[in-house]
Specification:
alpha+beta, Cytochrome p450, 2 domains, five-stranded mixed beta sheet, three-stranded antiparallel beta sheet, 16 helices, globular
């Protein structure tokens, strides 16, 4: 039962809303203005009531403690991913998550570590060749290829091939066009027919490869479920497979791109991480993990998480009416000066201080509660393994950086990242 409200919900006034419209109408700018009103604040988009929850207590309540009140109503990627885990709800979601969860525990991930290390080795070989020529390289493309290669190897036990890569990139363009939250309704529907054609062909190829593989792969897990469980239709196998691809590569590739941009601006942080201990030591691994954690604080990939209030509730003393859209934003919470000292600074050391770990609800780059990202540990593991290989071997000098960030379903560098790779030995 919800507690009684103790304060009035702060709301963005008409003048501030007009300034936002005049300034270009980016959703992230509107939400920044709303977030300045307090840990729970509201605004209206036409006849739609919207509440933004940035406070740690409110985040916990929405994502973890009262999930029966704050529910997920479909997903904007459903035209591409259908009934896959990312879009599923209710009992189907619970069954699908139960099937896949063992594959993404610490023990489950170890089965796929040889595939991850093979993708790391392939990326290191490409960078070695690039460093020898001294030519600038689009490292964001390399990082996307790496993350796609990892998930493809983990699915099929085969390396990524050029045709599959081409199709996945084409399908990804449709994914990138989807907003995290639409500020208005009534616009033309996006045509996903071409993207779905690529997705269907990739899924068929993955299933064919899985039948030839001698090593275990995630596609085999799905095919066994299809043989044993009536809910796992051929269509659901396709949807689940592509959900794993999309969720499996986007998080890693985007986080790595931001990380190398941040290290270019703060080269001392690379040196500090490598100086924490010798190669393979727990100290160095912890320092590299802190680089990743701080990157995800500043640039959590899933930057906005919409929910729907199924009944009246109270968030941090403020009333929330049934029917309200409730937005939770890791991006804004992670940059809230009420929760983080010097929130705009890149300071990985804050994650090495065991006495100052962030409060629950203050840091959630992979979500929180029962719908937190299933592949979080997998993503962190592949990222750290790649960085343990690349950081000691190369200094990355960015020669062309994006002008800023793009805010779609993900918060991503809004343009290519060209860099020159300088090889050097481990110190």
């Amino acid at each position: 039962m919800a507690t009684a409200a103790t304060s009035v919900l702060p709301e963005l006034d008409a003048e501030a809303f007009a300034r936002w419209r005049a300034g270009g109408g980016r959703m992230v700018d509107l939400l920044r203005a709303v977030g300045e009103l307090g840990p729970v604040a509201g605004f209206r988009l036409g006849d739609r009531r919207v509440v933004l929850a940035t406070g740690a207590e409110a985040v916990q309540q929405v994502l973890a403690k009262r999930t029966e009140v704050y529910v997920k109503r479909g997903h904007r990627v459903k035209p591409l991913l259908g009934g896959g885990l990312l879009c599923a709800a209710g009992e189907p979601w619970r069954r699908q998550r139960k099937l896949l969860q063992p594959q993404f525990t610490g023990r489950g991930i170890k089965a796929y570590e040889p595939q991850i290390r093979a993708a790391v080795a392939a990326t290191a070989a490409r960078w070695r060749a690039a460093a020898a020529t001294g030519e600038a390289r689009e490292i964001d493309a390399d990082l996307r290829y790496f993350s796609l290669d990892v998930i493809w190897r983990s699915l099929t036990a085969h390396p990524l091939d050029p045709e599959t890569h081409r199709r996945l990139v084409a399908a990804g363009e449709g994914f990138a066009a989807i907003p995290a939250f639409a500020p208005a309704t009534g616009g033309a529907e996006t045509d996903f027919r071409e993207a779905n054609e690529h997705v269907d062909r990739v899924a068929e190829h993955a299933i064919a490869l899985a039948g030839q593989a001698e090593e275990p792969g995630l596609v085999q897990v799905l095919l066994r479920a299809a043989a044993e469980l009536p809910d796992y239709t051929e269509r659901l196998v396709r949807d689940e497979l592509m959900t794993l691809v999309v969720a499996g590569y986007e998080t890693t590739a985007t986080a790595l791109s931001w990380l190398f941009l941040l290290l270019d601006a703060h080269p001392e942080q690379r040196d500090l991480a490598l100086a924490a201990g010798p190669a393979g030591s727990a100290e160095r691994t912890a320092a590299i993990r802190a680089l990743v954690d701080e990157t995800l604080r500043l640039y959590p990939v899933a930057w906005l998480m919409p929910r729907y209030a199924a009944e009246d509730d109270v968030l941090e003393g403020c009333p929330v009416e049934a029917g309200t859209t409730v937005l939770v934003s890791p991006y804004l919470t992670h940059r809230d000066g009420r929760l983080w000292p010097d929130p705009e600074e890149f300071r990985p050391q804050r994650f090495l201080d065991a006495g100052r770990r962030p409060a629950t609800g203050a840091y959630f780059p992979f979500g929180l509660g029962p719908r937190a990202c299933l592949g979080a540990q997998f993503s962190i593991r592949e990222t750290v393994l790649l960085l343990e290989e690349l950081l000691p071997a190369y200094r990355v000098r960015v020669t062309e950086a994006p002008a800023g960030a793009g805010y779609g379903l993900t918060v991503h560098p809004d343009g290519p990242i060209r860099a020159v790779l300088h090889a050097e030995g481990d110190k």
